[in-house]
């Protein structure tokens, strides 16, 4: 590359004054044609990036605005052949050919959207690659007195911000296509509004019963949420009075509010009688002209999606409330046996399902386990599910043998099948196809009893999928695989006469029984064998853990986030080793409860001989979870700690709705995601799920007894076997 300028000179006008033009391909400046001199003066005075490519060698001259676009290639590029300075214009795009045509044929061009240059992988943003981004480019010929083309005048206008806003609207439309709940829609809006508005922070406002009348959820431009945090419900706070007044005005008038400095934009949304607004908190810069078009498209898309979501939520919440209310809010636990369950409704749709599970102690001290599925979906299936679940308890208390329980339930199902059609008067407008079972009601169910002290299990299946057995360390040492389907006879579903013989096995310490409904395995276009193979692959990789963690891992690995076509439930039970400890406490919804919970946990961990470092980790996690429960649920929470196989498991269960507005002050920021991120980071396992009683969040930490340095020798808590 020719070097004809003093690279220490600042400013292109100064560069031009210090350039030895006679040493360049352009020749001495006093010999330039008048048109070229005029074009150069025009370029220097222009406020937009402007360049001249002079002569056959396309010598590059440019103004200060163009120099900024060149980045680190300026000032060395000044006065050098453009093909050497900007090779990507010719090698990586069509622009070089267009410029060549201007210089050879005099044909001008206008290129509305171009992107030139690509950062190498790992290269910093400040690298020398120029003109990154989207641009509008134009070039026209500069002719001398005889009409010959002596240069091309090239103007570049960056359109990256407008392009990004348009792309944000397109991405918004795509994302809203799969957002069905109000929470889903609001998350999509917040994510895309940051780009669409060029905002530091975006917020969405919905009506609130609070004094200001509005609640707001926010997302900050710098936030990078993990998938776990994205799945959590949004955090809402009350809108401060001054902003609430602005939001109310914008919604009432149906007009966009723009502050004079451009720092605040409030966009009203109204569809299907839904009142809402999107708020953008920006830098103090003028609003770009393209923002109006973006806001119009943004408003139409979001308002329609939000209107659909409100209707969907009303229907779905009723169905899901019915479903979860019919499931047990808590499962029994003991020092010898731990039980956990997870239920996930169908990901799309607003009907209740018939999946159910239960666990309860029998009078002789054994533990009964039940999981089943009523054929069909809807209110009828959910109602029958509740009746069958209640009937299981009654039958088991009378005679707990699996064959006896199954036989008693056959009669219950037959009676229910006959009851439903009779309950609909002939000719009523409510009687329509699908509202009665018409002799086709049947229920699949797995029923088992376990003796906690010995691990003896009696289990029978009425047409239900085979459970899996997850082997602990002792069983694997004897040659058992990590996970396998239990080999046992399967009888007909309840409601169809037939034998359902019981199978007996011994659940060793560290082993775990994993039962589930068929929704866990079924996929459209895939047979159940393939689903079983996927389940066994998941179990093969499950690390040593508790029933709660296994249920969480299985559910998250097996159930797709969207497109799930059937409800599914998972029930896990495992035997605990000697030395298993458990304690629990009820925490009131008061700020001072956080310190009290920390003190309680520290005292218990000290009694269990957990060392100080692990105590600090566990107490920090408890502090975050109790703080979340106090701030965002507003109800008392149940804190439970288990010490099992060198592992402390902590559970915090509340009965609040985390999607409801939070009266925490207008300027409060969303901290729950950060708090849960901290818990997830410091723990060995972490999870959360909703139950019929509220929300449960848990974490696990592998611990070392005080005075030791290894978790492999735990005299206070038993030999780790999982």
UniProtKB/TrEMBL annotation:
SMART domains: PP2C_SIG. Gene3D superfamilies: 3.30.450.40, Histidine kinase-like ATPase, C-terminal domain, PAS domain, PPM-type phosphatase domain. CDD domains: HATPase_RsbW-like (cd16936). The keyword Hydrolase applies. Pfam families: HATPase_c_2, SpoIIE. It comes from the Bacteria. InterPro entries: Bact_Sigma-Reg (IPR052016), GAF-like_dom_sf (IPR029016), HATPase_C_sf (IPR036890), HATPase_dom (IPR003594), PPM-type-like_dom_sf (IPR036457), PPM-type_phosphatase-like_dom (IPR001932). Residues 334-575 form the PPM-type phosphatase domain. Keywords: Hydrolase. This is PPM-type phosphatase domain-containing protein. It comes from Pedococcus aerophilus.
